[in-house]
Design goal:
Blueprint lengths: L2 H32 L6 H16 L6 H22 L6 H22 L6 H12 L2 H10 L7 H23 L13 E3 L5 E3 H23 L1 H11 L1 H6 L4 H23 L10 H14 L5 H21 L4 H7 L1 H11 L5 H7 L1
Antiparallel strand pairs: 1-2
Length: 351
């Protein structure tokens, strides 16, 4: 391997790592607040990419039907819960929150579809269209079992991935799509080495969004509420923070990140209805490196995953995924030696 090849692979690894960084941040955000390993995260990113592809080809994105279906189910679930508690006064609010608000981006998408609109409009609407998906799924399937064990929540999340994959096949079909580049041109460095503008955009987006992510958690009241819920759910509830509301914010923020990821990767790879699963798994490796709690370590893990994937694809394309997922073995072994074990009985006494 020459230095030129190593440099090319490093840049490609950084671009992949930027995607896994954003996805890893979304996974850590959801897990730290709700204890849910949200396996369908990558599916939401794939739906955003397919929605943008539909706009560019002049078609109405099938995501509209998916979102409206989930909204109807969420409204029914919320109304059923309120009826069981005889809380009829909150039913109109539930219809607005879980029915009308998710329908707004669907209405915007329907208005934009088939019309010659600027690329930025299609991108914004594509992202907005998938933002309600994660909160709606959480309301339907995860909120009723929010107090279950992490293992039960993981099994439910895995089942949701297969459900979303089936819905993706139903609404989008088996055909793949690729969008137009978000940025054209290239940056030429010494010795004729060049970096495409799309790659630079992916890396810059990850840096900027990570910075905004940090500022939100450190400087805003909402970010501090999310942090408080992640540290101690009972304590957060005692000071007036509603875990259900912060969970919805976490799901919404993660869904926004998934939409941005879908838009960023759509021009560089052909996306199918189930393409997001492998993205979510590799982001999960990065999140595991961060202990599913640390955002900086998750960022380091995402860059490591991207670089390992890039160099492994050069050595053996058939074994690159094996090498990436093999990173989990030393990480888990190291954590098993460093983390202090606490018996369940002692943990319950401390709480």
């Amino acid at each position: 391997m020459t230095w030129d090849v190593a440099l090319i692979l490093s840049v490609d690894g950084l671009a992949n790592g930027a995607v896994y960084l954003l996805a890893g941040l979304g996974l850590v955000l959801i897990f730290s607040v709700t204890r849910v390993v949200f396996v369908p995260f990558g599916d939401v990113a794939a739906f955003a990419a397919l929605s943008l592809a539909a706009f560019e080809t002049g078609r109405t994105p099938p995501t509209i039907g998916l979102v409206l279906t989930l909204a109807i189910l969420a409204v029914l679930a919320e109304l059923w819960g309120l009826a069981r508690r005889r809380d009829y006064a909150r039913m109109p609010r539930a219809v607005v929150l879980w029915g009308l608000l998710p329908a707004l981006p669907c209405l915007a998408a329907w208005a934009v579809a088939g019309r010659a609109m600027p690329a930025v409009v299609n991108i914004v609407v594509s992202i907005a269209l998938v933002v309600p998906i994660t909160p709606l799924i959480a309301r339907i399937a995860l909120q009723p079992i929010a107090d279950a064990s992490v293992l039960v929540l993981l099994i439910a999340s895995l089942a949701l991935h297969f459900l979303l994959s089936g819905l993706g096949l139903l609404f989008f079909g088996p055909e793949g799509s690729r969008t137009n580049p978000l940025a054209s041109g290239a940056l030429t460095l010494g010795n004729g080495f060049s970096i495409s503008a799309q790659t630079l955009l992916m890396i810059a987006s990850a840096i900027v969004l990570s910075g905004l992510f940090y500022l939100m958690f450190e400087r805003t009241l909402t970010g501090k509420a999310l942090r408080a819920t992640a540290v101690n759910r009972v304590g957060a509830r005692l000071v007036g923070i509603r875990p259900a509301r912060t969970a919805s914010l976490a799901y919404g923020g993660a869904s926004l990140l998934a939409g941005l990821i879908g838009v960023l990767i759509a021009p560089v790879t052909t996306m199918y209805y189930d393409s997001g699963f492998i993205i979510g798994l590799k982001a999960f490796v990065a999140a595991i490196i961060g202990g599913l709690t640390s955002y900086p370590l998750t960022a380091v893990g995402a860059l490591a995953v991207g670089l390992v994937e890039s160099f492994a694809s050069f050595w053996s394309g058939a074994l690159k995924d094996v090498m990436v997922f093999g990173l989990l073995i030393p990480v888990l072994l190291l954590r098993s030696f460093l983390v202090t074990r606490v018996d369940e009985d002692e943990e319950e006494i401390d709480q």
